[in-house]
Design a protein that fits this description.
Neuraminidase; four-stranded antiparallel β-sheet; globular; about 350 residues; mainly beta
Length: about 350
Amino acid sequence: MRVPAKQRILTAALSLALLIGGTAAAVAAGPGNDTEGARAVAARHQPSNDLVRNFNAVTRDTAWKVTSRLSLKFPTYHTEGIAITRDHIFLSSVEILEPTVKYPAPRDGYDRTPGKGVGHVFVMDKQGNLQRDIVLGEGDMYHPGGLEFDGTSVWVSVAQYRPNSSTIMYRIDAKSMAVHKQFEFKDHIGGIVRDPATGHLIGNSWGSRHFYEWDLRGRKISDWTNSQYFVDYQDCQHAAPGQMLCGGVTNLPQTNPAGGSSATYELGGLALIDVRSHLVTHEVPFQQWSSAGHVATRNPMKLTANGDHLTLTVAPDNGDEGNGTEIITYEATVAGVGR
């Protein structure tokens, strides 16, 4: 069967992303076994230093070009995170059955009702064909966040759809698709990264106002407040030892002539965060738009690098918007970056 050119382009781009490092950092030991051997294996599979160096060269003037769009032909609901392995594309999503409703005043520490929904992690081949729908969550915890692939497992948090709530951390074996409930935590965690240098997990709270670091058994190692208010991070990834990349969005109110506060403007952005100093070391806006009019970094995001070349993979649109969910690939060459 002849594969359409558009799909061949996307398959090649995603395969290249894996070969040059992408988000993969293979870990040999099982969960909770942060051995020196596991960290040594992980170090050999960390993303190239090109990623941090190239991202530090990105500015508002960097020219991003769409090189492929892959339309998904199954119900995708509200997309949240993306991870790319050698054989598959993983996409997390929340299916809303009953929307949350804000309380007139906080009740029992919550600002809204729990709502009802179903958490999904869709597993696709590189042509976007659905191969498996992994349903995750328990009770009021049905909202999956961003995804992280560490070379062996895909990590995903599933939280209540409200701040200051609770989360289950899951690990999905990327080959067998077996699901392992890792631990629970008392806060809404919307994104997750695994640092192969330590074996620890790092997550961000609702609106990315707070960060946490845990070992694989769920013991909290540290936590800190995000000093930046540029965008709310939605999907993150390991970038280099002690460094993570995040993408996100902020909805800003408009002036009265532009439609007033009900006509919000989506500001997208990407940020490099130093996990040791807890500082955002480089942050840039990202103003490219989807078919439905959303900023590209609205939710699922992964960035890879090769030489002076960057590839950004996103999926900002819900299944019932515009052309439906499309996995979009952007590429850019950054000036002043050599091998």
